[in-house]
Amino acid sequence: MTEIAGQPGLRGTAAAVVHESYAFACMRCGHGWEQSYAIEHHTDAEGQEFVVYVAEGRVVPSPLSRPACVNCDGHVVRIMRAGQVSSVRSAAERHHHRVPQAGPVEAPPVPGQAAPEPHHWHLSDLLHPFQRRAAG
Description:
Blueprint lengths: L1 E2 L12 E11 L5 E12 L5 E7 L2 E3 L16 E5 L2 H11 L28 H5 L9
Parallel strand pairs: 1-4
Antiparallel strand pairs: 2-3, 2-6, 3-4, 4-5
């Protein structure tokens, strides 16, 4: 079958219409989206079969031929089965938690003990475990 998109006057002559949905993820910008298509199967005057892809009432190119990101127009797009993007989004929302802003952490004072002097770390302190011991 060949695909002919945008031919006028064909929308009402489909022999069969199949509905399919796909999930897409752009490998360039990370954007994810899903789209449903009505795939209309037609036969031309010479008996050749072709399909027309329709999304949101508009005839569009096949999403499988050269998909483009709707966010950045990039063409490195992964095509997946429908539901992949929405399931990842809903899982992210369920497990979304706020991460505290980075910075120094202070332990609460222990009753009956004097507050310890703050320790100033030096690079040599951090590298100490990795230094070789001198042979005696």
